[in-house]
Amino acid sequence: MGLLNLNKKTGDTFTAAEVNQIGAAIDQNTNDIAELRSSMMYWFVDYDEGNNTALAVGGNMEVRQNYFDMCGRIIVNRNGDAARLNATDSNYFEDGTAAKHDGSYGQTMAYRPPLYGKVVRLSSTVVRVYKSPTPMQGFTLLYDTIVEGAFLGSVETIDGKICLMSLANTLPKDSISMSTAWGYAQNYGKDWGLMNWTAWNADNLLAHDFCKNRNVRPTLGSGIIGGTNSGSASGVAYTIPSGCTLSLGNASGKVSVTAPDASEQFSEVSLFGKESAWGKKWQFIAGNIHNGSTIYIWDDNKVVNGNPPSGVNYRTAYFNNDTNSNDKCPTKMAFGEKADLLPTAFQTTNNTTVNYATMWYMNGGGEILLGGGSAYYGSNCAPGYVNANNVFGNSNWNIVPQLTFMAYKLKYFCLKEPHTISE
Which of 2, 90, 273, 342 has its C-alpha lying 20 to 30 A from 330's C-alpha? Predict the structure, then answer.
């Protein structure tokens, strides 16, 4: 990129040759700017750990949008063959043919491409998270490809076995333990399991980024909350079947929905194709456990029995063993190498407007992670609303599983008629 010096002053005229020189310089500078922009294959999000919940987002916004566009719904069969769904209406495949979400073609899942990045502290209160869809010098893999249920996990009997599913027009399966839910996923196929901490944290980061705010509720809402008897299994909110956001396609947003056999209306949220990403019922989060002093995080398809993992590849993370943290929201986060949003400091009172997440780590070891909240918790529900005050084997009417697929086993995206997806 250079400067053009024509030695002109106000009132001077231009020859045709000089006008051509100016045009050529503009063209060259435009090309240079485009080349520079294309070489900057990253964007960044700045977190202010003060009371300002707004996030500064900068860098290459085209790369950011392209990454968002790659996130969305796919259908995956038991063998890992996958087909993309229409970006604006999940009732259709990408090629325009009608899609089914009853399991006949496979499971309806939400897809997240790999994301690389690095975390840099700019000041005592501001942390910058760099992000890129491609490897870059100094960046680490924040998360690999993620394929998680587009709907809360329900169950179907297939070949005589109870299988965990992600289907439309179903109610989620509650009152089972995490290990039982994982067994149901394994009944569908050995490459199937439960949503883990990495996937949950990735969606938290995505929601912050999309909303440009760590308080995502004003933009996306709190999901299905409130309603009659929300504190019991007979709550009206819990009668709403899955699939009400199919018309959103891959978009992040919310839709109004009326509960069956009732006049009560609710708002359902979808985050890049993941319906009920928070709200409605608590969701099991696998792949994260602590022993009272250290947090262990792993991505292997394994559920541990209330202890730090053995026989799996794990990383450790900061643990704040603050006995006064119960029911109080974090004001600062560890971030760490993988941008894990884990708390390092808590409020003196509970103000969910300014928090990143609610992490209730108790003194003991082995508590299970539950995410998103339930209708009973109202506007507290959010992608970072996480509870860790239940023992590992806990099961309840307001806790449900979320299916996942070991994404490295995805074989291809079929872009033709879905009938080419074979079992």
Answer: 273
Q: What is the pLDDT of residues 318-355, one digit of tens each?
A: 777 665 555 677 777 888 888 998 877 777 776 666 66
Which structure tokens are listed for 406? 């070991």
3-state SS, one letter per residue, for 139-186: CEEEECCEEEECCCCEEEEECCEEEEECCCCCCCCCCCCHHHHHHHHH
Q: What are phi and psi of 54, to 5 degrees?
A: -65, 145
Distance, in Å, from the CA atom of 394 to the CA atom of 245, rounded to the nearest integer, reads 30
pTM as predicted: 0.87
Residue entry with tokens 């894990």: 340
What residue type is 287 in one-letter code?
G
* Spatial distance between the Cα atoms of 373 and 378, rounded to a whole number of angstroms: 8
- In angstroms, the CA 271 to CA 145 distance is 16
Please tell me the distance from the alpha carbon of residue 303 to that of residue 395, in angstroms, as a whole number: 15
CB 18 within 8 A of CB 6: yes
- One-letter amino acid at 54 equals A
If you ran DSSP here, which 8-state letter would residue 47 be given? E
CA distances from 342 to 167, 204, 368 (A): 31, 11, 15
CA dist., res. 286 & res. 279, Å (int): 18
